[in-house]
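User: Okay, second chain of the day. Same drill as before: sequence in, structure tokens out.
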Amino acid sequence: MKKFTRRDLLKTALPASVAAYAIPTFIPQTAFGANDRLRVAVIGINGRGKDHIKGFMNLDNVQVSTLCDVDSVVLGAGATDFEKKYSKSVKQEKDLRKVYEDKDIDAVSIATPNHWHALAAIWACQAGKDVYVEKPACHNVFEGRKLVEAATKYNKIVQHGVQLRSSLAIQEAIKHLRDGLIGKVYMAKGIVYKWRPDIGNLGNSAVPEGLDWNLWQGPAQEKPFSKNYVHYNWHWFWDYGNGDIGNQGIHETDLAMWGLEVGLPDTITSSGGKYLWNDCKETPEYLTSSYQYTKENKILQFEVRPWMTNKEDGVEIGNIFYGDKGYMVINGYNDYKTFLGKERAPGPARKEGGDHYKNFVDAVRAQDKKILNGPVETAHLAASLAHLGNISYKLGRTLKFDPIAEKFLGDKKANEMLTRKYRAPFIVPEKV
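Assistant: Same drill. Structure tokens below.
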């Protein structure tokens, strides 16, 4: 087995100016002049929204001009922190619909709980705003398809918040897969081994001062307030979240599909459950899912573990790709290594990130969707893979799926779970 030298690596490495799908890095002249400031509103500022604010404010000629959150306490604290940090004032809004009415806003960045992502993004497209939306882009399969349709109909830029898509190292890794470095790639495994503790059961209580509980629930059916949901543990309840495969796991479902060059599968099998904590989580602590691609003769596996565990080739969060000439380990968002042949000889490796927010801004300024590293179509697919696994888990059986029609075969109950019952006026429309 040939040993790879640094010279070999440089010969095979993807140039920094070229992405895995030949995404152009130049920015053509557009309606945005060189001195025009891009004005962004960040919606949902308690968790990931903080990173959105920082990411956009770090860019030249970009201004976060509005913060929006349904919790006025969080909103006020966020605005105060913003003004101290950046020495600039910022507008505050509690209702995202007011943000969309603001003609001065060019783009919105959505970091709400999962159940709001798709509707917030669809409304933004309808209002003429470009969109950066956190993962998962949708709470169910139906919503993902509607978001793709909205982005197309209104010709808006929609970027999915999967940062690894802009990592130079990961782009290089994908090129190696395409070029046959590890041979025929037949399998990918997504790994999410996160420390998820017992959350107890806090029961129902009065709505905290400052929180608009009606707006927070949005598209979900109305229920009493509980501290179990706000502001993070909503991830573990089906009305609002999608478990860890639909939380952290979307990065890995996205990368697995990208590396395998596949879309939605035809056969899904999932199993798991709660084995550690007697708490009020609804989603499984442990989940393993298998996705078959009969036509492509490929398989995608995914595993979520919640607590004490070994690593897999050093990976707690990441992906492993298997080929007939070697395998590739992707650790996190910007680090890959390869191992070739029976002896697992070290091959090309790299660790380097990228700027996903800048990629979005570049695409907005150019009004060119081809520049996007995480386009809306990939957002729908990556999220839907997680949703399909969750449906198989909930029903406790293997499911057959038509990836073109995006429907289960002969399974009424499973097809009903591709969408949800919405609550007026927060309805994801059949026709966007």
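Residues 1-34 have pLDDT under 50 and may be disordered.

User: Thanks, on to the next one.
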